[in-house]
Write a structure and sequence with these properties.
This is VOC family protein. By secondary structure, this protein is of the alpha+beta class. The chain is built from 3 helices and 11 strands. About 30% of the residues are buried.
């Protein structure tokens, strides 16, 4: 049986949360859930970022780790610019979105158009990657991120996954350049 809908783009590789208290969420995930280490990427601003079709200068910080093969992402908005991290799509302390990886972001746009998914955010990732955050119809809390990674992302994610597999509980929060 052929896979249909947005799932045809690929499996969910990430579960993401927008916690009210970022530091408390990191503490919960590392100590209670036993997931870590988390790698922090601070003050990210996507090139050509648009929210609901309008340019925005949203800035955010990410914490990434792996729980087996699934990437866990925690997000902290760094400003009040329009985005899915502020306003009606900023659901807190529950799952915010899932992420799918694609080889070509055009496939993501085509799938969204075919299935009536509303494009919330779009932007460039590095020189050759792209990202879409779309609402497939269930509103806040059901957002799907479709990511065409830039070169080198697979190596970075693999490093994080290997660190998680070997993690002994020490050095739970690690900053990336």
């Amino acid at each position: 049986m052929a896979v249909k809908g947005l799932a045809r783009l690929g499996p969910v590789m990430q579960l993401a949360w927008l916690p009210e208290d970022f530091d408390a969420a990191l503490d919960h995930w590392t100590k209670t859930m036993g997931v870590g280490p988390f790698f922090i990427m601070e003050n990210i601003a996507l090139a050509d970022m648009r929210y609901m079709g309008e340019p925005t200068n949203a800035v955010f910080t990410l914490a990434l780790s792996y729980w087996g093969d699934v990437q866990i992402e925690l997000i902290r908005p760094e400003n009040d610019a329009p985005s899915i991290y502020n306003g009606p799509y900023a659901v807190r302390d529950r799952m915010h979105h899932v992420c799918l990886l694609v080889d070509d972001i055009a496939d993501g746009y085509a799938a969204c158009a075919e299935h009536g998914a509303k494009i919330l955010v779009e932007g460039k990732v590095g020189d050759s990657g792209g990202v879409i955050y779309a609402d497939p119809g269930n509103g806040p809390g059901s957002v799907v991120e479709i990511l065409q990674p830039q070169p080198g992302t697979a190596d970075l994610f693999n490093m994080m996954k290997q660190a998680a597999a070997a993690w002994d509980g020490s050095d739970p929060i690690r900053k990336l350049g």
